[in-house]
Amino acid sequence: QVQLVESGGGLVQAGGSLRLSCAASGRTFSNYVVGWFRQAPGKEREFVAGISQNSENSYYTDSVKGRFTISRDNAKNTVYLQMNSLKPEDTAVYYCAADYQPFRSSVSNSGAQYDYWGQGTQVTVSS
Question: Which of 58, 85, 97, 109 is geometrically suited to a Cys-Cys bond with 47, CB 3.0 to 4.6 A?
Fold first, then answer.
């Protein structure tokens, strides 16, 4: 089992930047694919970005490509989401999630594939 704690959210003006962190504790973090998801009020949860265990592969939803960057530091048991050029439509609660994969590496954009979730961090972008 792994526990996830997000941090780094806040209020920022459009065009600004934030860096979210997802700190993990528990089992060997390098065995986990990690994804970032977000949920805006009245909307369904959506995939934002995902990264494989050793950072070989990363994926993004189209709306954040070129603006967001996912990265990880397995020595620190932490995954980051650098968010630049933020837009009001990026406003949401952001969650990190972990998918235990000790023998394969498949980054899914489906929340159903992820076993563990953090509590979320609020990101608000003002216009």
Answer: 109
